[in-house]
Write a structure and sequence with these properties.
- This is Lipoprotein.
- Keywords: Signal.
- By secondary structure, the protein is an alpha+beta fold.
- It has a single domain, classed as Gyrase A, domain 2.
Length: 146
């Protein structure tokens, strides 16, 4: 095969590589980035929006092949990390982490919750959490997807 034939095959090889990347085992734990929004490179990830002094919306954009339980854990872990970054000891969810919107273009799902950061949480294991405890419990799981 000549060099000219190899050059003609390059676009097809690049397309195959991009599609192979989309066929993975789901979205990893990382921040959603502008580069990740480009058409062939949509990677999803978490996003945080501040709604008030102690109120935030945490969203996780997951690939269709990302298990629901993993997406929910990613949201909880990001909530815990956010609380600790902001000097809070815990957080309260307005409701359990749930599917926010689906289906989206490129077969993406959004999971999320409204979060209030708390200085002195009274954890109930359902809607009020100790941030350090959540982070410690989920860290080994999250580490697999970084």
């Amino acid at each position: 095969m000549s060099f000219r034939n190899h050059r003609a095959a390059l676009p097809a090889l690049l397309l195959c590589a991009a599609l192979a990347g989309c066929a993975g085992t789901g979205t990893g734990y990382h921040e959603r980035t502008a580069l990740g929004e480009l058409f062939l490179f949509r990677q999803g990830g978490y996003e945080v929006e501040q709604l008030g002094p102690d109120d935030y919306r945490v969203i996780y954009e997951a690939g269709i092949s990302t298990p629901e339980d993993r997406s929910r854990k990613f949201v909880l872990y990001r909530c815990a990390t956010l609380a600790l970054e902001k000097g809070a000891r815990g957080f309260r969810l307005d409701k359990p982490v749930d599917l926010v919107k689906a289906p989206m273009p490129m077969h993406k799902l959004l999971y999320g919750a409204r979060v209030r950061l708390l200085a002195d949480p009274q954890p109930d294991g359902r809607l009020v959490f100790d941030a350090t405890q959540v982070q410690q419990e989920l860290e080994p799981f999250i580490a697999q997807f970084r």
